[in-house]
Amino acid sequence: MTTPPTLSPLGDGISAVTLVQHVGSDKMIVNAARVSFGGDSDAPLNGRDEKLIRYLLRHQHGSPFEHNLVTFKVVCPIFVDRQLVRHRVGVSKNEISGRYVELQERNFTPPSFRRQAPSNRQASVEDDGTLDQAAAAAVWEGAWRAAFAAYQELLALGVTREQARGVLPLSLYTESYYTFNVRSLLHFLSLRDHEGAQYETQLYARALAELAEPLFPVTFREWRALRGEAGAKP
Ligand SMILES: Cc1cc2nc3c(=O)[nH]c(=O)nc-3n(C[C@H](O)[C@H](O)[C@H](O)COP(=O)(O)OP(=O)(O)OC[C@H]3O[C@@H](n4cnc5c(N)ncnc54)[C@H](O)[C@@H]3O)c2cc1C
Question: What would the pLDDT profile of 185-228 be if each residue is shown by its tens digit?
């Protein structure tokens, strides 16, 4: 059995995005569009097909992309997951339950802390050297340790898991299966692989894109070109 491709978006050895399975191809997108004219076929993808994909994306004919699915296993901090779950259409999710299992001691600690941006839209900016990184890391670590110790203490007292988990912070890792159809995946990426999104969520979005792109290479190429990404050929 081959190991499924996995990326670690936050580079800490806990964060992970794994490609679990996929359904469909660029050709499936073309066939779903061409069935309107009875023109679907088994022939390999050709230049006309590529043009059609470009046309569909440009004119937001989204439904042909919906027959194509990608399932990821996502291990991310709860604060990232709270943003992923806002994508309601064409996205399916199942998550580990803190009611049924004892939650593992898995905490995300930022490798470096950012400052609040003067403009809220941008949200955060790199530290200009004025932040006391060591002090921030110590506060974060202390808060995590105290919270996780409280969780374990409550369990030891006999408190149910579904209540004890209430003391755990947003930096706790959670894990889920997420299935996106390709339309919803591109929509997600346009919002979250974007400088306006939280930096850590951007890293997850890029990991999802990196794993999905080889499965739908023409779609991603044309989508990137439409977004005006450097290096993407129209
Ligand atoms: C940078 C950024 C900052 C954000 N900040 C906040 C925040 O401060 N607070 C907050 O609550 N959320 C925030 N969000 C979440 C945001 O409001 C969206 O919920 C999220 O991005 C999902 O986008 P969506 O609704 O387009 O996607 P989906 O939920 O997947 O919906 C896809 C599309 O379906 C259509 N659709 C879905 N539901 C409806 C509906 N009920 N009625 C009509 N059409 C519908 C829309 O066309 C929508 O674009 C933020 C998102 C981003 C990217």
Answer: 999 999 999 999 999 999 999 999 999 999 999 999 999 999 99
From residue 163, alpha-carbon distances to 48, 153, 225 in Å are: 58, 12, 49
Catalytic residue chosen out of the listed positions 165, 183, 192, 224: 192
pTM: 0.95
What distance in angstroms lies between residue 148's CA and the mean position of ligand 1's atoms? 32
Domain 109-114+129-170, CATH: 1.20.5
Same fold, 6-96+173-227 and 109-114+129-170: no
Whether 191 lines ligand 1, by a CB cut-off of 6 Å, is: yes
Q: Whose CA is nearest to atom 26 of ligand 1?
A: 87
Q: Which secondary structure element, helix H or strand E, spans residue 190, and what is its range?
A: helix 182-192
206 noted as active-site residue: no
Domain 6-96+173-227: assigned CATH number: 3.30.1360.170
